[in-house]
Every structure is written in structure tokens, then in C-alpha cells.
Amino acid sequence: MAGGRSYGNPRFRSPIIITLLFIISLLIYISLSPSRPNLPSTKSQVPMLNPTVDYSFLTSLQKFLSSPSESRQYRDDSVANTASQADVKKLDDLMWRRETEKLYEDSAYPGVSVVRVYVYEMPDKFTYDMLRLFWNTYQETVNLTSNGSPVHRLIEQHSIDYWLWADLIAPESQRLLKNVVRVYRQEDADLFYIPFFTTISFFLLEKQQCKALYREALKWVTDQPAWNRSGGRDHILPVHHPWSFKSVRKYMKNAIWLLPDMDSTGNWYKPGQVSLEKDLILPYVANLDLCDAKCLSESELKRRTLLFFRGRLKRNAGGKIRAKLVAELNHAEDVVIEEGTAGEVGKAAAQHGMRTSVFCLSPAGDTPSSARLFDAIVSGCIPVIISDELELPFEGILDYSKIALFISSSDAVQPGWLLTYLRSFGVAQLKKMQMNLAKYARHFLYSHPAQPLGPEDLAWRMLSGKLVNIKLHTRRSQRVVKESRSLCSCDCKPANFTNSRPLS
């Protein structure tokens, strides 16, 4: 057509054909290209330290002790009066009336689970005075335990009692955790928190003074109506250091103990005192700094040591495995085994060692557990756990097989077995475990305010799961004739059912 465009003309057809051919070629290339795995974003998995959050025990404690205390009433240092049976019965009626109401209120919302905690306001000598004692003396690093570890560093490692309590009593507007609330009436409570700093008192008081304070704390708590109502089954007692509260804890064996491990060898806890059914394992406070996203990226090519360990090489009980491991691993290629303690020099050496190693050895010590495991996790070093009696924190929530290797003691000491096994891991396997370590690290970082999915949060999730069983044993203990049969315990001993009858 005169004066118009002729699309049949090759002059105009060529650009269209070229464009179509380019698009078709691109699609063919994409379809034939090898597929790439959808790797999780490292950025989303690596915890980043929030500058507005305190992760340091000393920093947080300094702010805590210097904060305004207008809302805190003076606590009388006198011991509480012994609860009468009428007081106990009154509280029991109120609590079970509230439980019945809650049962029907929540029946339409089965997924909702909030733990309600009543925090005892104990005399200052059990709480604030203990924290001030630590604060006023923590710089005395010459104060060492018999094995050479700084006392105040040990207190920090076991400071779970501070982190949980500080979060519970903080103003509600400053708290981030929504699965636990503080209540101010005992009848509204699911659990009762005992804020006594057992580890500080053990290490920083004279022996007789400490025992006397333990006896006072025992009497104060066991005189409470709520304790007498349940026999202490719904009370939380932080005894995270295995030596703490030892002289009187047999009288509080029904309570929920917050522990570093179970130690079923019997060296630290008497039979029947601890069990996974009633107690809760909480992680040590890590001694080393978090290796964040930048650190993990920078340390990736520096991890040239296959296996690293720094610590006391001679230990008691289950820790005797260390001497055997040293004999097996000493002078092996790509392996670093060092004697050391938890002072500032030791911390720097351990941090450097863990950040330049692929695997970190975590053998049993005097107890099955140690802070070394959590140091390795926050350092991005894959833990090699050789502790046959070890129990782990939050194992109902976390899968440790994704971040750690579990080796039996018998296998570990076989000549050449351990190193051959570690060297059998491929690059892809190691990378996956290191990415999981980056993801899991947040679960072991205590902080104030407590963070969602941090150890405080997971602790309350675990305790929430125990509530039904706690209430079962509480109500059952109130109706069973104690003289006629053994009460149901965690020891799995057969009971005599012949002469039992319910209370009339």
C-alpha cells in the first residue's frame, strides 16, 4: 500500500525475528541450566546483636541495681508465719475455682498457652543483697576455686536465676515475651518463682553463714500456703550450680529445679531428687562472644584446625575421659589440645581457638555438662560431645543432631577412630551444620529484655508442657493416704496398692 509500512518487507521483519529468537534462546538456556539449591538465607539465620539489648551479665546487672525502685516496696526481713491449714485450704479453693473457669474459657482456643507466674517477694537478704554482694566484689578475680577458675566467672556462667527473675519483675511495657505473664494474686498462678540466688550465696558467703541463709530461705518458702498446698510441686527453684543449696535441697525435692544437667551418676544429686519429668535443664551462660554474620563470614577460611579443646585436662568422675582423650589426640595433625582456665587470658585464647576450628571437643567434666558446649555453639564451631550421661536444654524443642556430633566414650578412645570419623565429613555436610549453628545460637543468648526464642522464652515453653503433670500430682497427692502406699514418684518403683483409699 502506497505510503504505508509493508510488514512483509524484510527491512521491517528482521528486528522482530531477532528479538523472538533471543527470547526463545534465553528460555532454553534457563530450562537446561543446572538447578541451584534453594539455600536458606544466612542473613535470616545468623542472630545479630541488638544494640538496645544487654547480653552481658555485668552490664545488665549494673543497670538493674541502679534503676529507680519507686515501684518496689520495702521487704520485711522477718520470716513468714507458718501457713495454717485454713490458709492452705482457702488458697486451694481459689486456685481450683480459677482453673475451672479457665478450662471453659479457653476450651474454644486450644492453641493458646500462657504461663502465669507468681513471683515471691522474699526479703532483700535473699535477692537484692546477694546481687549487690556480687557487684561489689566481682573485680576480685584473685578469688579462685580449687581448680583455678575465677569464682565470679563461675557465678556468671550459672546466672540463669538473674536473667529469669529480672525479666519477670520488669514493667510489663518493657517485656517482649508473651507466653509468660506475672500475676499478683496467688490464686491466679500456674507456677511460683523462688528468687533466691543460691550460687552467689554459695561462693561469696562464709560456709556457716551460707548454710544459715539456706535454712532461712527454706523456712521462708516452706511456710507459704502455696507451698503447703502442692508440696512445692508448682514452685521453681533455681539451683543451677550443682554445689548450691546442697545442705537443704532434700527438703525441696518436689520443686521444679533449674539445672545444668541431671548427672545420673549420683555424684551431685541424691537418688529421687532430680528427673526429666519435673525439672528443667537450662544452658550455661556462654563465656565467649557471639560470632555474628560478619564474624562467621570472616572466619570461614580461617578454620584450619580440625579439632580444638582448651580447658582443665584432669577432672573427676565422668571427666576422667579427658585424660584418655589427651593421650589419644595429643600431637595429632590439625588438633589443638590446651590446658587452661576461664580467666580473661583463657577467654581470649578459647575464643581464638574456637573461631579458627571446624570441630570443638566437648567432653564430660566433674559433671556431664560444661559451658564449653555453648561457647562452641555461639562461636560457630561444631561441638563433638563425649559425655555419656549428658542431658541437654530444650531438647523437646531443639534437635541437637543438626548442630553437634555425639560420640560414645568407648568409641572416642579407640586408637585413630575419632579423627578418622571427623575427617570423613564432606564440605557440604560441614557447611550445613555450620549454618544450623548460626540459626541455633539465638536460643542460648540470655539477655535483658529477654528476646523471643531466647533461652528465657524456651524455658517457659518447656515449663508450659509440664503444667498438666504438675497439677495431676498436686491434686493426687491431696487425696492419697500417705501412710498406706508410696506416692507416685519419678523413680518407677512399684507401689503397694493394697490398702489405699481416697480421703473422705
The radius of gyration is 29 Å
Number of alpha- plus pi-helical segments: 18
The percent range for helix content is 25-40%
Q: Which series of helices and strands comes N to C? A: HHHHEHHHEEHHHEEEHEHEHEHEEHHHH
Our measurement of the CA-to-CA distance between the termini, rounded to an integer number of angstroms, reads 111 Å
Task: Describe this entry's structure for a reader.
This protein is of the alpha/beta class and 504 residues long. It has two domains: 57-281, no CATH class; 293-444, Glycogen Phosphorylase B (Rossmann fold, 3-Layer(aba) Sandwich). The protein is built from 18 helices and eleven strands. The protein has helices spanning 10-32, 42-45, 57-66, 85-105, 128-137, 151-157, 160-168, 198-204, 207-222, 225-230, 293-299, 321-329, 344-355, 372-379, 409-412, 417-423, 427-440, 455-479, and strands at 115-119, 180-183, 191-193, 235-238, 256-259, 280-281, 305-311, 335-339, 357-363, 382-386, 405-406. The strands form two sheets. It has a six-stranded parallel beta sheet. The protein has a five-stranded parallel beta sheet with strand order 8-7-9-10-11, with helices on both faces. β7 (305-311), α12 (321-329) and β8 form a beta-alpha-beta unit. α3 packs across α5 (128-137) and α8 packs antiparallel against α9.
